[in-house]
Amino acid sequence: MKEHKGAHSFYSDHHTVVTIGTFDGVHVGHQKIIERLVNTARAGNLESAILTFFPHPRMVLQKDADIKLINTIEERKKILEKTGVDHLIVHPFTRQFSRLSAREFVRDILVHKLKAKKVIIGYDHRFGRNRTADIDDLREFGKEYDFDVEEISKQDIEEVAVSSTKIRQALLEGRVEKANRYLSYPFSLAGTVVKGKGLGKEFSYPTANLHIKEDYKLIPKNGVYVVHAEIDGKSYFGMMSIGTNPTVGGTHKTIETYFFNLDRDLYGQFLSIELLTRIRDEKKFDSIESLKTAMRQDEAFSKQYIRDNYAE
Ligand SMILES: Cc1cc2nc3c(=O)[nH]c(=O)nc-3n(C[C@H](O)[C@H](O)[C@H](O)COP(=O)(O)O)c2cc1C
Ligand SMILES: Nc1ncnc2c1ncn2[C@@H]1O[C@H](COP(=O)(O)OP(=O)(O)O)[C@@H](O)[C@H]1O
């Protein structure tokens, strides 16, 4: 997969088949579209291209919308990389770009820059300034500029019954297993390990505190989760606490993980941690002792869950 920083830096000798979208999550519905894109390209001797936008249009046009995303842009790229698509164009979505008319977008970007011979698009896709153009307009442009439009029907989309919105909602409710089914891969949180309050070791549960640099990344509901990560090429399970640590008088949200069978300094390491299931809500305990007891129960629950689901 070749990555292009915007339509203007795209160049290929070949004609392309293009699909357009933000693809947050790259969930099973997105994957179906991309599969169709890749197969169409092979059958028609075209190159496949995904035109995606960053920042998310809603981050630019409704600054107050404060939208949180399932994937950071880096995560989105990594997942798309595995789909076998030839080109990924991450076009900067700016106010200026949003003011392009439908015709300018089609003519200057799809036709002249991307050399599209085919565009695969959802039945309800709208584009151009104020989202005024729809798929019928795109078909008309296709006649004029010599490209085909392939529609992904309402039925095709509803059959999958998955949407980025539903996945975001599930994560905000802590239902990671549901989200993971829709995604077809485990939702993850990635960042660098930073210093915490230094209490974990006293608890006999040292926890790696994750700092996520992307403020637009969606953080699931506060609580305790069974997790998994690859650390230096080895697989580790653990338990993660997302919350404000009310028992020890915490004030801000932290994301902390205790890994089983690991005893190593992780400060400064970049970790991508997969969330597998939710154990419980975060609680304010009346003593450190009761918190410790709860954490021992979390550990027992996690280990049972791992045995049941990941035994070799
Ligand atoms: C599995 C697990 C569950 C936790 N559950 C809670 C909880 O329910 N309530 C709470 O106040 N803190 C909870 N904590 C957070 C501890 O208070 C925290 O690990 C401790 O304050 C150490 O903080 P430090 O890493 O900043 O030193 C949990 C931590 C872990 C690893
Ligand atoms: N099994 C483990 N799981 C998580 N972190 C561990 C583990 N073993 C050692 N560590 C190290 O201990 C650190 C956490 O210790 P802790 O006492 O909780 O301090 P702090 O909260 O100040 O970071 C982690 O950042 C990591 O470097």
Automatic annotation (TrEMBL):
<comment type="pathway">
    <text>Cofactor biosynthesis; FMN biosynthesis; FMN from riboflavin (ATP route): step 1/1.</text>
</comment>
<dbReference type="InterPro" id="IPR023465">
    <property type="entry name" value="Riboflavin_kinase_dom_sf"/>
</dbReference>
<keyword id="KW-0548">Nucleotidyltransferase</keyword>
<keyword id="KW-0547">Nucleotide-binding</keyword>
<keyword id="KW-0274">FAD</keyword>
<dbReference type="InterPro" id="IPR023468">
    <property type="entry name" value="Riboflavin_kinase"/>
</dbReference>
<keyword id="KW-0288">FMN</keyword>
<dbReference type="Pfam" id="PF01687">
    <property type="entry name" value="Flavokinase"/>
</dbReference>
<protein>
    <recommendedName>
        <fullName>Riboflavin biosynthesis protein</fullName>
        <ecNumber>2.7.1.26</ecNumber>
        <ecNumber>2.7.7.2</ecNumber>
    </recommendedName>
</protein>
<comment type="similarity">
    <text>Belongs to the ribF family.</text>
</comment>
<keyword id="KW-0511">Multifunctional enzyme</keyword>
<dbReference type="InterPro" id="IPR015864">
    <property type="entry name" value="FAD_synthase"/>
</dbReference>
<dbReference type="GO" id="GO:0003919">
    <property type="term" value="F:FMN adenylyltransferase activity"/>
</dbReference>
<keyword id="KW-0808">Transferase</keyword>
<dbReference type="InterPro" id="IPR015865">
    <property type="entry name" value="Riboflavin_kinase_bac/euk"/>
</dbReference>
<keyword id="KW-0067">ATP-binding</keyword>
<keyword id="KW-0418">Kinase</keyword>
<comment type="pathway">
    <text>Cofactor biosynthesis; FAD biosynthesis; FAD from FMN: step 1/1.</text>
</comment>
<dbReference type="InterPro" id="IPR014729">
    <property type="entry name" value="Rossmann-like_a/b/a_fold"/>
</dbReference>
<dbReference type="InterPro" id="IPR002606">
    <property type="entry name" value="Riboflavin_kinase_bac"/>
</dbReference>
<dbReference type="GO" id="GO:0008531">
    <property type="term" value="F:riboflavin kinase activity"/>
</dbReference>
<feature type="domain" description="Riboflavin kinase">
    <location>
        <begin position="182"/>
        <end position="307"/>
    </location>
</feature>
<dbReference type="Pfam" id="PF06574">
    <property type="entry name" value="FAD_syn"/>
</dbReference>
<comment type="function">
    <text>Catalyzes the phosphorylation of riboflavin to FMN followed by the adenylation of FMN to FAD.</text>
</comment>
<keyword id="KW-0285">Flavoprotein</keyword>
